[in-house]
Write a structure and sequence with these properties.
single chain, about 140 residues, Thiol Ester Dehydrase, Chain A
Length: about 140
């Protein structure tokens, strides 16, 4: 299994008065990693992107340890745990080499924004997803 890894930068404004990264931002970290992961499979022009979009239909997150603000980025690992005709599930780990801060999951639906309806995944999208499909943990 291959994982996509995004070195997510932390901003000083992400931290609370105790220096912890606010828990609500972990979903943003997951979104940033997912968005960058899918850049290579998304159409280049806006019209085609509207016909071949993806929407999050479910998100979950489990916090494991506080993440303190620092200059170094935190790694967000993403991989596909399951795919179907119109949707797929992604798993995430927000971590360093020796510390897990959070684990998450999202269910993503292939969606046509023009008709406001789900659509089937294309052959190109299914091939892209298969490259990242697996269920084992790297830690």
């Amino acid at each position: 299994m291959h994982r996509y890894t995004y070195p997510c930068p932390l901003r000083w404004a992400d931290a609370d008065a105790y220096g912890h990264v606010n828990n609500a931002l972990y979903l943003r970290f997951m979104e940033e990693a997912r968005t960058r992961m899918f850049q290579e499979v998304l159409p280049a022009n806006d019209a085609d992107r509207r016909l071949n979009a993806f929407v999050v239909s479910r998100a979950s997150l489990e916090f494991r340890a506080p993440l303190h603000y620092r200059e170094d980025p935190v790694d967000v690992h993403v991989w596909v745990t399951h795919s179907r005709a119109v949707s797929f599930e992604l798993a995430y780990e927000i971590r360093d080499a020796d510390q897990m801060y959070a684990e998450g999951a999202t269910t993503i639906a292939a969606y046509d924004l023009v008709t406001s309806r789900p659509r089937r995944l294309s052959a190109v999208e299914r091939a892209f997803l298969s490259h990242y499909e697996g269920s084992s943990s790297s830690a």
